[in-house]
Amino acid sequence: MDHADIAPIAELLEERRHLLDVAYWMLGSPSEAESVVDETYRRWYLLSDAARKGITAPRSWLAKTAGGICLNRLVLPEWADDGAFPGCPPDGPRATDPPPAPPEEVGSVVLDALDSLPPTARAAFVLNDVFGMSPDTVADIVGRTESECAELADRARRYLRIQRARPTTPKEHDILVRAVRQACMSRDTELLAALLSPDATASFDGGGKVRASSRPVRGGRQVADSLLTLLARRSRTTLSTHSVNGRTGLVARYDHQVAAVITFDIADHLVAQVWIVLNPDKLHSWNRT
């Protein structure tokens, strides 16, 4: 028997519950959380006795391993089409089973909104804000620098604040987006800035296929300037409203070809987040005749 693995029952159960919480909050599925935890312990026992004895904080090692497995699952969902990871037993709880008890400080609204976050931002937020892991541990799991992880977590917090804000009706959303279009068309910087939240953020998705800002632009005035620069009026350039994911958005065309699709998140009657898709690969469907 490996005495390094002997611990009080309460400690063992708390350890597994903690790992289930981490996996559940990152993946949102009880069955996948169980699969991740099973895979985590499988990797633990694949270590040699000497390697396990050399790990001074087993719970930390297990949490980092579980977080890494979850992130891989988020980035490459095809790894587990049946809800289980390679090497894991298929007889875990069904998706209808009750999920692990979530941390009390995070509500179900936040959990639902996490589904919309990019994998790395979701991981950075969950590991940092929900479970309070150290910055170096989060960076190790996510595969980014500590400063990059801090920025990812901050972007996630902003997005989640928007999601928890008072819902905007489709009519209110439409009116505000049309006002933004008018301000862009008339090149009215002051009007455009007045329609934006003071801490508004604009994110550009160029996909490495066009020259676009790789970092978000922050601040209402700065976002207004960036939009007016991007949408500078040129001959053969048009800007129109269009339904995007069920809400009014803006579509910029050049020579009748869609060059950008812009969507907006609104909170407290102001634009809080602007999402600009410039990646040609993501605009293929918009350019089909």
From TrEMBL:
Family, similarity comment: Belongs to the sigma-70 factor family. ECF subfamily.
The keyword Ligase appears for this protein: no
Annotated TM spans: none
Keyword Nucleus on entry: no
Chain spans, region Disordered: 85-104
InterPro entries attached to this UniProt entry: ECF_Sigma-70_Domain (IPR052704), NTF2-like_dom_sf (IPR032710), RNA_pol_sigma70_r4_t2 (IPR013249), RNA_pol_sigma_r2 (IPR013325), RNA_pol_sigma_r3/r4-like (IPR013324), WH-like_DNA-bd_sf (IPR036388)
Organism: Streptomyces lannensis
Domain RNA polymerase sigma factor 70 region 4 type positions: 110-159
Coiled coil regions in record: none
Pro residues bias (residue ranges): 87-103
Gene3D superfamilies linked: Winged helix-like DNA-binding domain superfamily/Winged helix DNA-binding domain (1.10.10.10)
This protein's name: RNA polymerase sigma factor
Pfam families named in the record: Sigma70_r4_2
Keyword set, alphabetical order: Sigma factor, Transcription, Transcription regulation
